[in-house]
Amino acid sequence: MTEMVQASHTLEVATRGKGFVEITGELTRWLASVAAENGLLTVFVSHTSASLAIQENADPNVRCDLVDALDLLAPEDRAYAHQEEGPDDMPSHIKAMLTAVSIGIPVRGGSMTLGTWQGVYLIEHRARPHRRSVALSFIGHAADA
Prior knowledge:
Elements: E1 4-14, E2 19-22, H1 24-33, E3 36-45, E4 50-56, H2 60-73, H3 89-98, E5 102-108, E6 111-112, E7 118-124, E8 131-142
Antiparallel strand pairs: 1-8, 2-7, 3-5, 3-8, 4-7, 5-6
């Protein structure tokens, strides 16, 4: 019989500025540290100018194209009413609203049920590097000890 567990953790992610930062490995390691077997992993980024995505992890050009597409949807050279924090701030809020700040990933057999070419990413929407806090929560069954 497996034990029911609930675990939480805060992952600090350093970004280099605008773009995708893969966090799949960190999530995998944390799930192993709590002996997660079957359940649900919730990932939440607590910022209004960064977001999360599950995306292709094989071809980096996919992520470049996605950044370009988001830039077209929320350009920095538009006259926004909110401009107090620089030209990339309001577009960053729009991009975070269009993507996700929270995702749920089923865990089976101790692994996230990601597809073959899927990875979990934090998306930094600001131009400058930041340190982003990502809250992790697992609820489910732990592996037998």
